[in-house]
Amino acid sequence: QLRLVESGGGSVQPGGSLRLSCTAAGDNLDNYAIGWFRQAPGKEREGISCISRSGGRTNYASSVRGRFTIARGDAGNTVYLQMNSLKPEDTAVYLCAAGPLCTIVPGDPSLDYQHWGQGTQVTVSS
User: Confidence class of residue 89 from pLDDT cuts 50, 70 and 90?
Assistant: First the structure.
């Protein structure tokens, strides 16, 4: 059974950077497309990035394109989300999820991703 754990969250000032990790146990992440989502208080869960199983295809929400980068680690059990030029509106709980296809279309993400981590808090504030 695949289990996902996010790490790397924290508090930073606007303009700062963080690197989130999504680490797997129980299976190899190369068998799945991986999506990163975020959820702020009172808002719907938002898909912000995903990477295909091969790593050859990535996708980004317009709100993070050019600032965030998703990548697979070499060992096959970690996917990273490098977040630069952070803004206060990036404050949210960030979650990673695993599924068959790289997709971040609006809608219920549980239809596309069957395995979810618990999330890590990112706070951007001066």
Answer: very high
Say what the pLDDT of residue 106 is: 81
Position 36, amino acid: W
Residue with tokens 């050859």: 56
Question: How far is it, in rounded angstroms, from Cα 103 to Cα 116?
Answer: 15
R_g of the chain computed on alpha carbons: 13
What backbone torsions phi and psi does residue 31 show, to the nearest 5 degrees? -85, 0
Q: Are 60 and 54 in contact (CB under 8 A)?
A: no
- Measure CA of the first residue to CA of the last residue in the chain; give whole Å: 41
The SS3 call for residue 113 is coil
Instruction: Give the helix/strand (H/E) hosting 58.
Output: strand 58-60
